[in-house]
């Protein structure tokens, strides 16, 4: 994976908990290009090793002399967002080259963009890119209150944008049936944000007749709405081992405890290094790196993902 040596050129407070950072090449060399929906990985020192944290690029592709990210301070995070919020202008950072698991479909003629909370970051990159290209789009952005909306002033000036505030009561928020509407052959829907929003949007779109190929989503953070994890068994087919996975451990944890030497990196479902194949069982995907196509193919991240079924069989 290509690593870029960069420095923080500018920092802005967008909300009380969200900071925007502009990153530039430390040596002045041109940066790798990217497309709307792409993300980069910051190397963050946590514990005894560097770990990768993925952040969506907010700028459009015609500003490739810098990378723009916006990071929300998460009180229950493992420390990545806290580390980013402690950075100062001029700080050196190591960044992985852009990767896009959430790209715009160029064959579409119209786009419906929906974002919740900090999920606005890849969606705004899409809106900026589409606006620059003169393509038709509608952007809907939901949050509890205006003070929590990153990029609020810019979005309010976009002709195709609507902001929705629910005050913490979902029933007062975005009217999904009206917002999504009936499908059109050349229209694609993109949604990013917390799991609850994504699930609600996709359910409504499917109920309205949208087909899977027109629906695109990205879970911006590993958030499971407080759902309690349950124990299950994992069978490692190649290793000829069956292990018990308790609620407070991951498959990766129990593999290491069993004396195995699995390949992994981030341990957060950000990078995909640990990806395995599902042989049998029903997965509960908790990563943010695998696309819908990857998951349909049977890809699985044992560092964070679990099983809905009592037993899961992997090719490891």
Key words describing this protein structure:
single chain, 316 residues, alpha/beta, six-stranded antiparallel sheet, five-stranded parallel sheet, 7 helices, 18 strands, globular, oxidoreductase, flavoprotein, transmembrane helix, metal-binding
Description:
With 316 residues, the protein is of the alpha/beta class. Helices cover 17% and strands 34% of the residues. It is built from 7 helices and 18 strands. The chain has helices at 80-85, 120-133, 152-156, 176-180, 195-207, 251-257, 292-296; strands at residues 3-15, 18-25, 39-46, 49-56, 67-72, 92-99, 110-116, 136-143, 161-165, 187-193, 215-219, 232-236, 241-245, 276-280, 283-284, 299-300, 306-307, 311-314. The strands form 4 sheets. A 6-stranded antiparallel β-sheet has the order 4-3-6-1-2-5. A 5-stranded parallel β-sheet has the order 9-8-7-10-11, with helices on both faces. It has a 5-stranded mixed β-sheet with strand order 13-12-18-14-16. It is globular, with a radius of gyration of 20 Å. The protein starts with a strand and ends with a strand.
Summarize the structure.
It is built from seven helices and 18 strands.
Strand segment count: 18
Overall pLDDT metric: 89
The dominant shape is: globular
Total DSSP helices: 7
> In angstroms, what separates the terminal alpha carbons?
23 Å
Are there runs of 5+ residues with pLDDT below 50, and where?
221-227
Helicity level: 10-25%
Oligomer: single chain
Structural class: alpha/beta
Strand/helix succession: EEEEEHEEHEHEHEHEEEHEEHEEE
